[in-house]
Specification:
It comes from Modicisalibacter luteus. By secondary structure, this protein is an alpha/beta fold. Bound molecules: NADPH dihydro-nicotinamide-adenine-dinucleotide phosphate (NDP) and 1,3-dihydroxyacetonephosphate.
Length: 353
Amino acid sequence: MTEDRLKVAVLGGGSFGTALASIAADNGATVRQWLRDEALVEKINRDHRNSRYLPDFDINPAVVASSDMRSVLDGAELVFVAIPSKAFRAVVRQARPWLHQRQILVSTTKGIQEDGFKLMSQILEEETGFSHIGVLSGPNLAAEIAEKQLTATVIASDDALTRARVQTTLGCDYFRVYASNDRYGVELGGALKNIYAIAAGMAASLGMGENTRSMLMTRALAEMSRFAVALGANPMTFIGLAGVGDLIVTCSSNRSRNYRVGYAMGQGRTLDEAVDALGQVAEGVNTVSLVCAKARQEGIYMPLAEGLYQVLFNNVPARDMAKLLMLNEQSSDVEFTLSREDVKHARRLEGDS
Ligand SMILES: NC(=O)C1=CN([C@@H]2O[C@H](COP(=O)(O)OP(=O)(O)OC[C@H]3O[C@@H](n4cnc5c(N)ncnc54)[C@H](OP(=O)(O)O)[C@@H]3O)[C@@H](O)[C@H]2O)C=CC1
Ligand SMILES: O=C(CO)COP(=O)(O)O
């Protein structure tokens, strides 16, 4: 019986990796989880709890943790990589000797590598050359998944087998897996929304109201999709779970680590203090620098990201930056129906009349 079970490997012992490992085990897969922390490995295998990242959550006892990469990957047909972006490539390289091209490799990481502006699935592709590669992304706070709150996610891949296998492995009565073939757009959506979650946390702690939050999220969506489309993504992806869906949850919840960094800074903490107090990765801090640099290079208008960058790295007070943003030229609501150029042109005509 056990011989027929799908073998799943999860690389990473953080909150999301742990939640996914447990779902796959609930669905009957044989699941092994790799983490480097030996003490935590022992605790997971003994207590079926991840005391560091998800302390209140009972992990399915069938999940076996290990710090031995080889044994975790041995025979695995589906591999989820849930490692922060800064360490992602190094861990994939460590895994490479035990990966083979029939395997399905799926990134769950919402970040960007500085060198070459690479997304995580591009790193999977570069390091392995495999064809079954996908990205899992969506409004997926790990703590809520652990509580079995009704949740939906997206598996994005141009490979139909990857999409179908992930839907079967993770789909259950509280976790729905929708499919997309816009891997780049889905992955970019997950990385970009972290920027605006920091800004939303800041706005909340500065006492800004619901109108402000709504403006921030909607203009963030315009900015994210403008950036992604300029880089080749499909704009329609941003009306889906991995675009507006993830933006809503991460900009609304103090369970989001990015939101919490912004909230702490709005309360007067420095960036370093906010990140240290979090003790986990907030990918948006790194992403905002990379995205602003790329936007400047490509000539993409990103006032919110640029404003946040000034607050995080150039000591501009958040409240002053918000006021400055309100003084920007008023432009188009939905650029896919009325272009920014048309609005500018109309203003020139008005000036001439
Ligand atoms: N948490 C969430 O709600 C969600 C997270 N994600 C994304 O998934 C990714 C992973 O998330 P999550 O599980 O929450 O991450 P966590 O920050 O909770 O954990 C990261 C894991 O990666 C390990 N790790 C970090 N650096 C290294 C390294 N150099 N070598 C080996 N292992 C390393 C950590 O090990 P150690 O403890 O030893 O440092 C830990 O096991 C994130 O980048 C995030 O964007 C996506 C959806 C939801
Ligand atoms: O991506 C997430 C929810 O979808 C998690 O966000 P944080 O990394 O900000 O915790």
